[in-house]
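Backbone-to-sequence.
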């Protein structure tokens, strides 16, 4: 099942993605206004299909983040072997965990503003785990049972701000720095999370092309490790790390950072394509 949050006729609606990718079926908002409501209720496919109306063109909606109000947004750094190698970083002995704030969420095809404070904005294509039931201290072999599904994320990173201090948050959680979507895809339809092709294009040029098989810590291990410390709740997000091919991993003379007008597109397995366009921050007003 493929779910999306969209704006249609001025309001937020939950939508079911059709197989052709060109249309969506809007769900009765009185029953399920968005994916957050589905996750909270644990609603199944039959219930959602029964509440859905006739198809509408996908090209005519405005997309919102695939999850709108996550309680927690976890991110994992340096979680692909070849990405650690390209950045000259050692392979972590345990997951490198940081976070983003909800202000960072952005929808498919949303324009993200490049903050004036950075001169080094980078992309990071990522598989994102979406928790579907409350779990605490779960074992790795049981962890994926707590996952509702998966979506695509772009862990945008202002590298100059990220490495200004020993903590990464400053460069990771500006407004719009976590594009998410277009769909939330159920685990059964998405398939094996450790066998997903992951690709990113910048202005049509392929920059990242790898597989989630290169992860150091797989999705089950990450859910288990995080649940040792936090109680995971429906709607919590786990950005699972990015493969090689980021701008930061290039030689300094080849590091041309994201600029206004640039467009990234990310494709992962059966999850769809997440597109983001970038714009310059307008000068601050006087007075």
């Amino acid at each position: 099942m493929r779910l999306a949050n969209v704006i249609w006729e001025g309001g937020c609606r939950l939508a079911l993605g059709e197989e052709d990718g060109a249309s969506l079926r809007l769900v009765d908002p009185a029953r399920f206004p968005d994916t957050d409501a589905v996750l909270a209720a644990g609603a199944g496919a039959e219930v959602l299909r029964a509440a859905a109306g006739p198809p509408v063109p996908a090209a005519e909606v405005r997309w919102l983040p695939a999850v709108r109000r996550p309680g927690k947004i976890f991110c994992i750094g340096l979680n692909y072997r070849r990405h650690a190698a390209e950045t000259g970083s050692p392979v972590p002995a345990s997951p490198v965990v940081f976070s983003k704030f909800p202000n960072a969420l952005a929808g498919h095809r949303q324009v993200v503003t490049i903050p004036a404070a950075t001169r080094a904005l980078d992309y990071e294509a990522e598989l994102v785990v979406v928790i579907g039931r409350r779990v605490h201290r779960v074992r790795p072999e049981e962890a994926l049972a707590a996952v509702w599904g998966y979506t695509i994320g772009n862990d945008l990173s202002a590298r100059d701000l990220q490495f200004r201090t020993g903590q990464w948050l400053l460069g990771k959680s500006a407004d719009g720095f976590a594009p998410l979507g277009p769909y939330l895809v159920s685990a059964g339809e998405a398939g094996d999370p450790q066998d997903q092709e992951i690709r990113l294009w910048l202005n049509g040029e392929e920059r990242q092309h790898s597989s989630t098989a290169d992860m150091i810590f797989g999705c089950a291990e990450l859910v288990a490790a995080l649940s040792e410390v936090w109680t995971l709740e429906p709607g919590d997000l786990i950005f699972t790390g990015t493969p090689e091919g980021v701008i930061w991993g290039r030689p300094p003379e080849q590091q041309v950072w994201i600029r206004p007008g640039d467009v990234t597109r990310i494709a992962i397995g059966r999850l769809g394509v997440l597109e983001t366009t970038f714009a310059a921050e307008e000068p601050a007003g006087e007075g």
